[in-house]
Amino acid sequence: MSSSSTTEYPYEEGSYTLYVTKYCPFAQRALRAFYAAKVPYKLVEIDLDNKPTWYHLVNPQLKVPALRLPSGEILIESLVISEYVADQFPEARLLPTDALERAQLRLFVEIFSSKIVPNLYGALRAASVEEQETKKEGILAGIRDASRQLENQWKRVNNNEGLWLGDRVSLAEINTVSFVNQLAAVEIHRGLVVPQSQEYAAFNKWVEAYSARPEYTEYSLADDVIAEKLRKFLA
Amino acid sequence: MSDISQAYPYEENGYTLYSCATCPYAQRALRAFCIAQVPHKVVEIDLLNKPSWYHLVNPQLKVPTLRTPSGDLLIESLVIAEYVADQFPKARLLSLDALERAQLRLFIELFSTRISSVFYRVLRAADVDDQEMEKKKLLEGVREVSRELENQWERESGKGGPFWYGDRFAYAEVATVSFAGLFRVLDHYRGFQVPDTQEYKGFNKWFGAVVNHPGFTDVKPDDAALIASYKRFLP
To answer: What mean pLDDT is predicted for residues B33-37?
Structure first.
């Protein structure tokens, strides 16, 4: 990796540079997008507990991920970065081209951002058992919603191989699966159990389908590693 | 418009937008349709007295919701606005270039977190000290947005302004101007105004152009109604 003496932060000349922390679920969205689109890039790992002094030059908010383009522009925000990859590399087909299908995919991703993720961290942070139970129920309600949307989606695409778009990975998985992985911490620390009943069947099928894909396994973490990483959120 | 046997009112073979004139989120959807010049039927929902059938349209009981001619229901203001941009590409609401789209999304995110969210905190703050603190944060947000606008106007897609895409009122405005319109509410309840100094130049240039554009004025709720609708946020 090169950096000229006039630059103040490391990057790869003429290429993409992705600043990430491998265990961060937000950064994993960017990692999976690049993997799925098969786009080469230089990875710069950021230790979130000991950030390099130059990192504010890349992202003043000091968060990961951040993406430096070959042209020198920098993008932040995991969803903006994964969508940039989908737009810039349309041959990877990470998003459908139809307007309605794109909207429905975005709404599926939104369930995770708005219902599952806040309750995931909420359950860990909650001090009382009562509050933990409320947050766990919030996660399950989000999962049931996701399950219904998967059922509707599979009727529309008439393809039952288990991924949102049927047989191929898209932003529907790229933007969400790291958070499903994180649920292991709520299972281990807070006793969350995702039932096997009908209301959760489509979700469980989807999890089984993507779990076999390298786009998932390349960056997924073992349950006990996740549980340890998220221990710091426990009340 | 509606057949009495329908479970909920909608326009047959057309777009139906369930909206509320004073809601800034609903205005995003309305503006997208208006700027793209797509015919649509508006069904006004009184948020303080929701029709008994509205849960059939949106179980979360929020606005906006869009019913497409095919009978699909979409929620989330930005998902709806982006659907319009995708479905009606001739309206050129949103650039097709991946980097330009990413930069626009980051602008919308910046506006939302540094201006729109802070509005509500200024209104809700109970004591004068808290109000002053939130007002300071709001001014900081306006300065940041101001700088971003000026950065954009140096780019080819911004060509000198005054709108994000130069002389065209388009997606960036659709997503943000209803919140900019809330400055009127803050002036009324909290005596807040954006100064006319150098640091706010970009914002004032943009806002000055926005308030005179039909894209803003055509969908603007009447001042008195808008001000009244925000009374409930006061402590």
So the answer is: 97
